[in-house]
Amino acid sequence: MKTPTSSTSSNANHDSHSHNTNSSHSSLKKEPSMSSVRRTSQPPLFHNGAPSSSQERNDPDYSSPSLPFSPYSPPNLLSSRFNHDSESDPDDEDEDDEEEEDSDRTENDILSKPPGRPKVLNKRPTYDHKHDRCKQVVYLEEEDIELIFTGYRYIKSRLYIYYLACFLSAGIIFLLGRWLPQRFISFVARECEMSKAECVVVKNEWGQMATEFIFTKYYGGPIDSVFSPDQLERAQDDDVSFEDTVATGILHDMRYFDYQYIRFIYNPMVQQFMQNSKWKDPDWSSIGNCERGIGRETHQERTMVFGQNLIDVQEKTVGQLLVQEVLHPFYIFQVFSMALWFADDYYYYAACIFVISTVSVVTELVETKKTMRRMRHMSRFTCNTKVFRSGRWRYIGSEELVPGDVFEITDSELAVFPCDAVLLTGDCIVNESMLTGESVPVSKIPVTDRALQQMDLSLSNIPAELARHFLFSGTKIVRARPGSLKSTTTTQDDEGDSQLKGLAMVVRVGFNTTKGTLIRSMLFPKPNNFQFYRDSFRFIGILAIIACGGFLISTINFVRMGVPFKSMIVKALDLITIVVPPALPATMSIGTSFAIARLKRSDIFCISPTRVNIGGKINCMCFDKTGTLTEDGLDVLGVQCGDSESGKFGEMLNSVDDMQKAPKTLLERCMPLLFAMTTCHSVKSLNGELIGDPLDLKMFEFTQWILEEGGLGARTATVTESVSNGKSAMGGIVSTVVRPPGGKQFDLDDVIAGHVARETNESANFLELGIIRCFEFVSSLRRMSVIVKRLHSPGMDIYVKGAPEVMTDICAKDSLPLDYQEKLSYYTHHGYRVIACAYKAMPTLNFVRAQRVKRDQIESDLIFLGFIVFENKLKPTTAPIVATLGNARIRQVMCTGDNVLTAISVSRECGLINKTREVYIPRFVSGDSMTENSEIAWDNTDDNRMSLDPVTLKPSTNWTEDSNNGPEFPRYSHLMNDHVLAVTGEVFRWMVDYAPASTLNRMLVKGQIFARMSPDEKHELVEHLQAIGYCVGFCGDGANDCGALKAADVGISLSEAEASVAAPFTSKSNDIGCVVKVIQEGRAALVTSFSCFKYMALYSIIQFTTVSFLYAFASNLGDFQFLYIDLILILPIAVVMGRTEAYPLLNPKRPTANLVSKKVLTSLIGQIMIQSLFQAALFLIIRHQPWYTPPVYDSEEKNIECFENTALFLLSCFQYLLVAIVFSVGPPFRKPMVTNRPFVVITAALVLLSAIMVLFPTRWLSEVMQLVKIPFSFRAFILVMAGVNFALSLFCESFLFPIFARWIGEWLSERQQKKLSRYQAPSAVDSTTVDITRQQPQGYGSHAVTDQDALQQAMAQPVNKKKKASVKIYKIVEDEMNAP
Question: Which of 356, 650, 675, 931 could lock onto 927 through a cystine, CB 3.0 to 4.6 A?
Answer without folding.
Answer: 931
